[in-house]
């Protein structure tokens, strides 16, 4: 690989307006971390926020729920307000609660209303498996056959053709659930187009934002999306198992949640302990149980960095990082048997890139041994997520150089060809 690539990378790093954010993360020295689309690293402000929460617990005990200035009782609602710019929603349209799959169950239980001639849920074959498990489970609970879950096929096994999705929006479809970014290939779907098409056909549509929130701007309210859900431990950097988020368009506020729980109560009535459920009048109604305060605390700190950086600047750098990777891969890696499966067009690409190689699992092991943390998805995909707040163009260049060397030196051959344990 030509040294000109490294020189160009170093120049881009010097001009990067977000370069100072790298110091706000706990990252081991000499490690290139490119798996932030699975779990973001620990932000320094998140650690401070967790310590504050522990101190509050030690000092106030149960009174922490109501003690000013930051009572736990309204912490989730306060955090929800801070997602306004991240997802393009009004504060009342967002709730920070549950997990991605739990929130999907809640939303489908609420919005899927099958009737005569309209009893199908539309999804896709490339969606994250947990989403498909939840959708199939909701059909089973209603006594509907598995074939009521209609999956849009993929012509290449990597990406989706939006025309095929539109064709699948037949009169029998009552609900559609699609990813904003495909978790394997990194393809970004045209969410506003799909939302508009669903609305024209009378279909309720929701989106899984797990691989886009925090790195791709959204305008959910303006696009007319009915609902969305996401996790907060990837690009948001809220910590392992951080509480997730959900969005419900304000036109649906007042709708009784399918899975009611006491934390979805109107706040003014929550401690009346009546047998009748009085739901909140906004997205807060879709909460179920008591929020995990010690898990919410790091999220509170992590959001500080996103707010300081600004989502538009994050997206600009994200596209530049992934474009730089793809440009190098096309010239350096493609001749060596690597296949780039992530779309090259900026408007069709999320925050990560995916390469396929016949020896992908061996390549991943070799990268880890050399101080790079990538991600593997069977059967043969290497995912790499150069995150804008802590990764550099120089790191991208080094990873491509390592991938090149692994093939040229056949160094990957010393590693097992199949996984013996789940990772």
What would you note in describing this structure?
With 423 residues, the protein is α/β, with parallel strands linked by helices. The protein has helices at 3-15, 44-60, 75-81, 84-87, 100-111, 129-141, 162-168, 191-200, 220-223, 293-309, 311-333, 360-369, 393-408, and strands at residues 25-26, 32-33, 42-43, 94-96, 120-124, 149-152, 173-179, 204-208, 227-230, 245-248, 339-340, 353-356, 372-373, 375-377, 381-384. The strands form 4 sheets. The chain has a 7-stranded mixed sheet, sandwiched between helices. A 4-stranded antiparallel sheet has the order 11-12-15-14, with helices on one face. The two termini are 31 Å apart. The model has no long low-confidence stretch (mean pLDDT 96).
How do the strands line up in the largest sheet? Answer: 4-10-9-8-7-5-6
Question: Secondary-structure element order, as H and E?
Answer: HEEEHHHEHEHEHEHEHEEHHEEHEEEH
Q: How many strands, which pairing sense, and closed or not: the largest β-sheet?
A: 7 strands, mixed
Percent strand equals: 5-15%
* Radius of gyration over C-alpha positions, nearest whole angstrom: 22 Å
Gap from first CA to last CA? 31 Å
What integer is the average pLDDT? 96
Shape: globular
Helix content class: 25-40%
Question: Which class best fits the helix and strand makeup?
Answer: alpha/beta
The low-confidence runs, each spanning 5 or more residues with pLDDT under 50, are: none
Number of strands: 15
Counting DSSP H or I runs of 4 or more residues, the number of helices is 13
């Amino acid at each position: 690989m030509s040294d000109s690539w490294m020189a160009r990378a170093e120049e881009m790093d010097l001009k990067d307006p977000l370069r100072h954010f790298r110091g706000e993360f706990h990252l081991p020295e000499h490690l290139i971390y490119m798996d932030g689309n699975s779990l973001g690293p620990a932000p320094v402000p998140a650690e401070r926020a967790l310590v504050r929460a522990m101190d509050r617990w030690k000092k106030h005990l149960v009174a922490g729920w109501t003690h000013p200035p930051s009572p736990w009782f309204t912490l989730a609602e306060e955090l929800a307000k801070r997602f306004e710019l991240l997802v393009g929603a009004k504060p009342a349209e967002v709730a920070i609660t549950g997990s991605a799959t739990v929130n999907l169950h809640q939303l489908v239980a609420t919005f899927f209303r099958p009737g005569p001639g309209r009893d199908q849920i539309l999804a896709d074959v490339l969606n994250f498996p947990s989403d498909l498990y939840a959708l199939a489970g909701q059909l089973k609970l209603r006594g509907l056959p598995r074939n009521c879950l209609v999956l849009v096929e993929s012509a290449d096994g990597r990406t989706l053709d939006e025309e095929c999705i539109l064709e699948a929006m037949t009169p029998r479809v009552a609900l559609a659930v699609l990813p904003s970014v495909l978790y394997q290939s990194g393809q970004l779907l045209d969410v506003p187009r799909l939302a508009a098409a669903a609305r024209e056909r009378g279909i309720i549509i929701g989106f899984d934002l797990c691989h886009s929130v925090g790195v791709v701007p959204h305008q959910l309210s303006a696009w007319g999306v009915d609902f969305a859900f996401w996790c907060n431990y990837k690009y948001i950097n809220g910590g392992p198992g951080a509480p997730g988020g959900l969005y419900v368009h304000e036109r649906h506020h007042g709708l009784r949640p399918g899975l009611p729980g006491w934390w979805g109560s109107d706040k003014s009535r929550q401690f009346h302990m009546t047998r009748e459920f009085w739901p909140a009048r906004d997205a807060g109604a879709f909460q179920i149980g008591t929020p995990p305060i010690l898990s919410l605390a790091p999220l509170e700190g992590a959001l500080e960095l996103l707010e300081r950086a600004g989502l538009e600047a994050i997206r600009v750098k994200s596209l530049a990082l992934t474009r730089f990777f793809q440009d190098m891969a096309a010239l350096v890696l493609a001749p060596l048997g690597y296949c780039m499966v992530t779309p090259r067009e900026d408007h069709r690409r999320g925050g990560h890139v995916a390469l396929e190689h016949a020896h992908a699992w061996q390549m991943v092991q070799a990268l880890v041994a050399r101080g790079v943390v990538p991600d593997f998805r069977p059967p043969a995909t290497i995912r790499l997520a150069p995150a804008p707040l802590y990764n550099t163009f120089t790191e991208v260049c080094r990873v491509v150089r390592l991938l090149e060397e692994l093939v040229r030196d056949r160094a990957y051959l010393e590693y097992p060809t199949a996984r013996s344990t789940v990772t």
